[in-house]
Structure formats: C-alpha cells, structure tokens
Amino acid sequence: MAIRAGGRGSGSWRLAAAALAWAVAGAALAQDAGSARQSRDDAWWTGPMLANSAETLPRGHVLVEPYVYDVMTDGNDGFGSRAYVLYGLTDDLTVGGIPIIGYNGLHQGPNSSGIGAGDQILQAQYRLTRFHEGSWFPTLAIQLQQTVPTGRYKRLARSADGMGGGAWATMIGLNAQTYFWLPNGRILRARLNATWTFARHADLDGVSSYGTGPDFHGRAEPGDAFYLGIAAEYSLTRRWVLALDLTWSHSDATHVTGYDDPLGLPAVAVRASSGSSDAFGFAPAVEYNFNANVGVLFGVRVIPGGHNLTRSVTPAIAVNVVH
User: Fold this and answer.
1) CB atoms near residue 253 (< 10 Å)
2) Where are the domains of the chain?
3) Is pLDDT above 70 for 60?
4) What homologous superfamily is domain 7-322 in, according to CATH?
5) Angle, alpha carbons 248-271-256 (nearest 5°)
6) Signal peptide location in the record (predicted)?
7) Dihedral through CA 242, CA 68, CA 320, CA 44, nearest 10?
8) CA distance 97 to 63
9) For residue range 265-302, what is the model confidence (pLDDT) as tens digits?
10) What is the pTM for the complete model shown?
C-alpha cells in the first residue's frame, strides 16, 4: 500500500513507525526478563495483521474475527470490513466464509452512494502436519479460497459504487507456522503464506470497476496474482504480543477488450491493459489478549510503492473470538 505525503497518510506513517519501534524496544527490554523457558500455554495469541495460520480449529469449534480498516491513498479512502467466520468440520479441516462490505470516499468526485457488499469469499483449509516441541518440522496446511462475484462492478451510476471485480477467482495457498524460543526464554511464533490466484473473465457494460465509460460493452480478464508473506509474533507477556508482517505480491496485467457505442455514433474498438504490478509491504501490529480465546489487534499495513502500483496506508482494528 502506501505512505501518503502529508495529511492523514503521514499520521498513519508515524503510527507504523511507532509500532515498529515499540516492537524493537520491547524485544530488547525483554532480554533482561530472565531465561526461564516460556511454555506455549503461557502465550496467548490473536494473530498478526496479515498472515494466515496453518492451524485448523478443533472439531465443532468456531472462530469469528471481524476487521475494520481504511485503505488510504492519495485520492481515495476505501473504508471496509471483512469478517473471518470459520468452523472446525474435523480436527484437520476448517471451512467457512469471509463476508466483506465497503464504502469508497473519493477526495475528488462523488463518494459511494452507500455501504455496499463486496465480493464474498468461501474458504477451506486442510492441515497436513502439526508442530511438536523438539521437532524442526512446522505445521503445514493447504488453503483454498473461492471468490464469489457478488459485489457491484458494472452499470454503475458512479465509479465509487464499484465494490467487486465481477469474476470468479480461485486462490490456492500453502501456510506454515512454527515456534522459536529466544535466548531470554520467550516465544517467537513465525508464519509463512504463499498463494496463487487465478480468475475467470468478467462481462462489462457501462461504467465499471475497471474504469470503463458509460457506453462501453466488453469484458475484463484479470491476470494471475502471486503473494508471499512472512510474519513474526513476539510474546512480550502472556497478554501482550508484538507482531510484524512482511509481504511481496505480483499481479499479471488485466486486459479489457470491447467497444464504445455512443448513441448515434459509430462503435469504436477498445483494447486496454493495466500492465503487471509488483509491491512490497509491511504491517506492524500490537495484540492484546483478554484470555486464550479472545483478543484484539491494532495494526497498520504500509505499501510504500512498487511497480505500477498506488501507494497506500491501511490502519485496521480486529477482534478475534474462538469458541
């Protein structure tokens, strides 16, 4: 995402820098906390801001984790909420969905006409292995997500009303998670996510999420996307955790083809490409856990730029509940 120069973006950058400095200072101070080995039962976690867990829920258990965020760029505030609602179908298989809603506030031009539903996501995760103390092998899981194009994306009265992409998309991922004990005895939990997303085409008419005009008819073909994320969480105390995500993503070009057909004028062929994009990002966060099953997270995702990508800053708050 991005660091905005001045205004609200600079404030979020200061928040990100402060959180990162707190993480470094906290880890340094904790070196004096003694060398007794912390037990995993003594460490409570909410999870970092971005990286998915490789664990699955015990059979019959439920996880609910709503996020509220604002994707801030130079020209837009993308307010949104997504909630992970997951159920342990078996001890090794977790299924569920991720409902998403949003609202676009444009700095120049009309805002969204109201809060709208985005594309919804169905998810399943199967655990392959499980971490055991004394072993170097991590917990590994395969994750599958299916994006259902339920959000408005074409025949829009205003471009800010676009909440979806209009294309069915499938994501296949590998998640890993392991634990390290630092010299001071405290636990550092590490995660890795690697994903590949591919999508079908979206039929377009009129103003759309792809920047087409009111007289356009055609289709969009989103490119494949690849993502790699690593995260570390430091158990500062039983309740307090400092977290940091580092991410890299690549998206192939999206192609839009069709024609503009203004009333009373000859149709004009249209062929456009967004070009491929690459981005690096980071997301410092602080977790507070009320107990082993309820916690909150405060974090900021920062994408300072990249190839063919808009810079952005995304502050977020999340609540994690397992029952």
Assistant:
1) 15
2) 7-322
3) yes
4) monomeric porin ompg (2.40.160.40)
5) 45
6) 1-30
7) 10
8) 11
9) 889 999 999 999 999 999 999 999 999 999 999 999 99
10) 0.86
